Amino acid sequence: MTSTAEESDMAARASILVENFVQVVGRINAAASATRPVRLVAVSKKKPASDILALYSATKHLHMELLEKAPVLPSEIKWHFIGALQTNKCKQLAEDIPNLWVVESVDAAKKADALEKGRASLISKNPEAQKLRVFVQVNTSGENLKSGCAPSKALELAQHITGACPHLTLEGFMTIGDIVRSKTSHEPNNDFLILQQTRDKVAKGLGRDPEQLELSMGMSSDFEQAIELGATNVRIGTTIFGERPPKENTATQASAP
Hints:
Oligomer: single chain
Helix content: 40-55%
Strand order of the largest sheet: 2-3-4-5-6-7
Largest sheet: 6 strands, parallel
Number of strands: 8
Strand content: 5-15%
Radius of gyration: 18 Å
Mean pLDDT: 89
Order of helices and strands: HEHEEHEHEHEHHEHEH
Distance between the termini: 32 Å
């Protein structure tokens, strides 16, 4: 049973989260073009499910980074998978979570194939289920510790997704940019420029309008610059939820639009 003091603390926490969320939305709208809407994905890594529920209750429209707690949260939440993607978990991920809206970290054909199998299985059991959107993750900084395909491999992977994975939809491209570049230089972050250039080259190779393919880039420290350079999907964590607790051996995350 929740005590009066606990209820008061939860209400105060919810008020802070909603205020932070509204401020971020305002900053996004100020930076965005009137003709190009930008989706906010709220990243609640290591935060409790109550934080996500508080935001959802206030907004009724939420894109969140996928949490282990997803089954106990409202089915209307549109979940984004953003973290490192393991091939052996892809089929289950795509099959077991009907409201998984997009996987943002596809960097290899075998992962796309596994997601395809999972979503095909889900749709065979539930014809009303939607195709699974995917972003191709690109390692724009060339750092060995970062996931993502090389920019030169992005077209090949995109062609595989569009040609061999009928239950997936290529939504666009994602990068985890070098935040130091955004903070220490007056020049545009080169990671954002490379992702935009990669998207444009792939679009040409696919015979598509570049504007049909989204750019997921920018986080709490640099999302406004990312929007100026073409981002349509930004992933905001600490600016909404506050600093994360110390790292542990395992991690989960959550995000919102």
